[in-house]
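User: Here's a chain of 537 residues. Predict its fold as tokens.
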Amino acid sequence: MTEASPNSNIAEFTVSDISFSIKRTLEDAFGYVRVRGELGRISRPGSGHIYLDLKDDRSVLSAVIWKGAVSKLKIQPEQGLEVIATGKVTTFPGQSKYQMVIDALEPAGAGALMALLEERKRKLAAEGLFAPERKRPLPTLPRVIGVVTSPTGAVIRDILHRISDRFPLHVLVWPVRVQGETCGAEVANGIRGFNALPEGGAIPRPDLIIVARGGGSLEDLWGFNDEAVVRAAAESAIPLISAVGHETDWTLIDLAADLRAPTPTGAAEIAVPVKAELMASLNDLNRRLSAGLLRLVASRRTELRAAAAALPAPRDLLALPRQRFDFAAGNLERGLSVNTRAHRTRLMRAEALLTPLTLARRTTQARDRLTGLEERLARALTVAIASQAQRLNAVSGRLTPAPLIRQIRLGQERLGTLSTRLGRTGQQLTQERRARLDSLSKLLKSLSYKDVLSRGYALVRAADGQPLRNPADAPAGTLLSIELAGGQISAEVVEGDAPASSSTASGSTVPPAKKPRPAKAAAPKTDAPASSQGSLF
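Assistant: Prediction complete.
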């Protein structure tokens, strides 16, 4: 506050002074209040605070919930919800506005809670979280059951006692608060925690989850109406039983669960069968199975004996096949001999047709026939030309010059055309014959043993000129004639592995040739007489 002006006795304030003075006055007058109203605009910035409006039919009150108080709220603010807000009224000097700092928020009676519950139910149902097709069947006999509940209440003791009486098995308890501000978040974390356990891990993964709590008022059970709990139950991959409250109580998790139990004890009875009843049923089935098997075996034995009596003796069954087998065995040797002779004959005929001498003879005949055709063609052309000349000379005296000249011109043109056609025909025929002759020459060359000798092989003959095929046919001292690609050499068989010295056809000595690599056998090709040529087949 500044001093008064000389012209006035009114005190002067700065903006900050008057703003903070109003702030203190307002906070002193309304230190801690409860305000009832409907939630209007709600804003959730990244800072974590919540800014909202409390309104009625005539006024609007701005409010803020600081980040530290948001997690402690019993209910989360939703637009249109009628609530009772507890906190203090203060100002925000930066904008010259007053607002309420809310520390606690609760619904304004059961009617407001039911309205909120119906609105949330319609919203989640529209997303399909309560659809029947999402429900999963419960396992008949789970090995491990997970229970999400308070570890100190009577509910868990009732569940464990009932499971122990009916069918003892492994039970895992996920401790949570079943009432209060953090109830919804803890129950949702428990459901997701059981689903996150790996198969075969240190902590066994449950085959069934039970979410249980005893009875209570709507406010007491409100945590199980939390949207996070409903979504966790709908997303659970493990079948889930909801056992919240008594039979007359219902919550949103009952609609999202795979099955709703009227009480926690009823959930335990649904989860596991009675072991004694199962044993009795199994014993009855085992007894019926044994009796049925005995009756079946007796019936099959009777049918088998009847079928065996109608069957003939084994020796009678085998008599005819044995006789056919003996007959076939007798004909087998003779048939093999005939078949072998037939194949040998066919092979010898084919060998005779494929000898180089036959191919050479056919090639010579074709060449001679082609030469004769060429000579006949030349003679025929000469005779034809001479005959035409004679005819022209004979009629030239009887013809006048003009027609004669015309006929001579026409005859010359026709003769030229015929000569051209005859030349082309003769040339074409000559080319065809020459191509066929070249083909036969190549075939003869490919079948000749001369081509094999040019690749480093040798043809060894005895003194009588016959080719040698077996080393046993050439004892020591045998004179040999070895034909190579470049000529012939003589050799003599001696004892040991070292070959005897040899001389070429001109008499000079040469070192022994290296042993050639084995190669494919090729038909020999030579112009020598057939008597001096060995067969390579």
